[in-house]
Amino acid sequence: MKKFGENMKDKIKEILIYVIIIVIVILVRTFIVTPIRVNGTSMYPTLDDKDFMILKKYEKKDLNRFDIVVIKTEKDKIIKRIIGMPKEDIEYKNNSLYIDGEKLDIPYGKGYTNDFIDYCREDEYFVLGDNREDSIDSRILGCIKREDIMGKTDFIVFPFKKWGKVE
Q1: What is the pTM of this model?
Q2: Given the residues 56, 57, 80, 152, the one annotated as active site
Q3: Which residue has the higher pLDDT, 31 or 119?
Q4: Per the omega criterion (within 30 degrees of 0), is the bond before 35 cis?
Q5: Of 3, 9, 11, 42, which one is the catalytic site residue?
Q6: Is 50 one of the catalytic residues?
Q7: What is the pLDDT of residues 122-154, one digit of tens each?
């Protein structure tokens, strides 16, 4: 028969395992990855409304043109594609993209884009939704500060028929 103290030690060990698991899950969700849901059609045809994706927070440091990123705004989190990088002139003219005066062919983007000119300062990015005619993006919000980018996302986890990496 176990003594009271030994029984208590066993209970504490058992509880400690669950506490450690909970702490690890919280740390992973806070600093590494977390699920994110697409809300709306602004990234169609690449992403559909209600797709569930994995947000990789640790990749925030290494942002590249055409990455899909999650941005925190005052009201919500939005998913967009990086088009313009820091210290670049971004121009759309006759439905064509120009970066620092050079035409850039992009495989992303559905619909007509009105002409505009913008400039991203240090640590700012110009983002657009792939569905140009139904997207609140840098054309309305202006360039996005690096600190407002939560991380990258490029992996759909649900619906299962779309499971996998997206470009």
Answers
A1: 0.83
A2: 80
A3: 119
A4: no
A5: 42
A6: no
A7: 999 999 999 999 999 999 999 999 999 999 999
